[in-house]
Amino acid sequence: MMRKRSQIGFISAVVAAGMAVTGCGGSQTTGGTEGASDASGSTKIVIATQSPLSGSQSVVGDAIKTGAEYAVNLQKEEFKKLGFDLQLSPQDDQADPKQGVANAEMLLSNPDVLGVVGHYNTGVAIPSSVKYEEGKLVMVSPANTGVKLTEEGKKVVHRICARDDSQGPKAAIYAKEKLGVKKVFIVHDKTAYGQGITDQVKAQFEKDGVEIVGYEGITQGEKDYSAVLNQVISKSPDMLYFGGIYSEAGILVKQAREKGFKGVFMGGDGIDSSELAKIAGDAVEGVVFTSIAGDVTQTAEGKKWADAYEKSMGKKPETFSVYGYDAAGVLLEGIKEAIKANGGKKPSREQVLEAVHKTKDYQGQFTKVTFDEKGDNQFADVFIYKFGKDKSEFVGKVE
Predict the structure, then answer these.
(1) Is the same domain home to 170 and 70?
(2) CATH no. for residue 283?
(3) Rounded CA gap, 345 and 82, in Å?
(4) Which of 323, 316, 311 is nearest to 364 (CA)?
(5) How many domains does the chain have?
(6) What is the rounded average pLDDT of the residues 123-152?
(7) Which of 235, 246, 280, 291 sits at a 20 to 30 Å CA gap from 368?
(8) What would the pLDDT profile of 229-251 be if each residue is shown by its tens digit?
(9) Rounded distance, CA 129 to CA 307, Å?
(10) 181 and 119 co-located in one domain
(11) Are 221 and 356 found together in one domain?
């Protein structure tokens, strides 16, 4: 779905050295049944994650990684019985397209890597998916909402979440019908995600007769958005809609309130993070956002899962944790189906891709998944949340 960057320049050295991608956590066992290995004799099966693990977007990036890690941990024994050593390779794409591509190339160089859970940012996912397509390495995204991602015709691309052309219009309709918005000022962060979702929101507002009094872009990483906010204040809109990430949204809403903005502040799933409250402080209260991720704790079963997750992983789940978990679940189910179809032997990437693409009525912890021909999930939904004084509260599904 989305966006930024950090430091780490040793990736090319890693590739040059030809280092194998290793697993995360746990011992690297080699046990397996006779004949289960591939042509090279390896019984190792690796799935990777690609998300920002450093920098300003690392909270959500880590949630995606940790969710996938939890899924892998729970299935290690099952894979061991099948004769395989299941491992996770978490990669830090830094919300940077170049880093995502470099990581993708490294993953492709390791034949044990059979799939990727990722990304968080659509602007990183699209160029990285070019590499996955070349290597027939299947990708299951827990968070990318950009429409273009699955419209380019790549066979490897899949996502379990809704697209911007579902989220954006539903956000605009909710704003008009439920929040009474008549005048809106729209701001985006100039990224593939931010501009993509605001374009969808803008089109629906125009269709419904909501007056758009401004449409401006800001630069990620800046700390003072006075220039655009002065325009907002001068136009007196009912709503300031922001398409971007929580790191900028927190600053934007805080500075908007300090300048006297009294209207509604609304955003998309990019601002869906507990960090928003830490950045915005008291100004976070009343912030509304749509998300392609629902609240797993709304059911007794979901609460039980969240408690087990926290006990096992040592941290409370973020909203996208269960989506990382379910995306990994889809990928692991596809790998098991491919193993079965291959007579119990280690499958090829092409076989895993075929099995994942055929996913139908897979019931994850939160999401049901059936992929259409493009790789979009037919059961994807959009949800509404609203921030209280320090955390977001689930409002419900947007119909």
Answers:
(1) no
(2) 3.40.50.2300
(3) 9
(4) 323
(5) 2
(6) 97
(7) 246
(8) 999 999 999 999 999 999 999 99
(9) 34
(10) no
(11) no
Average pLDDT over residues 51-66: 96
Q: Confirm whether 132 is domain-assigned.
A: yes
Pair 346, 285 in one domain: no
Residue with tokens 């920002």: 52
Q: Is the peptide bond before 119 cis (omega within 30 degrees of 0)?
A: yes
Verify that 197 and 262 share a domain, yes or no: yes
Confidence band of 24 (pLDDT split at 50, 70, 90): very low
* Residue 157 and residue 174 in one domain: no
Q: What are 315-361's pLDDT values in tens digits?
A: 999 989 999 999 999 999 999 999 999 999 999 999 999 999 999 99
Three-state SS string over 320-366 comes to: CHHHHHHHHHHHHHHHHHHHHHCCCCCCCHHHHHHHHHCCCCEECCC
Each residue's pLDDT tens digit, 75-109:
999 999 999 999 999 999 999 999 999 999 999 99
Q: Which amino acid is at 190?
A: K
Same domain, 332 and 266: no
What's the CA angle centered on 181, arms 267 and 216, to 5 degrees?
50
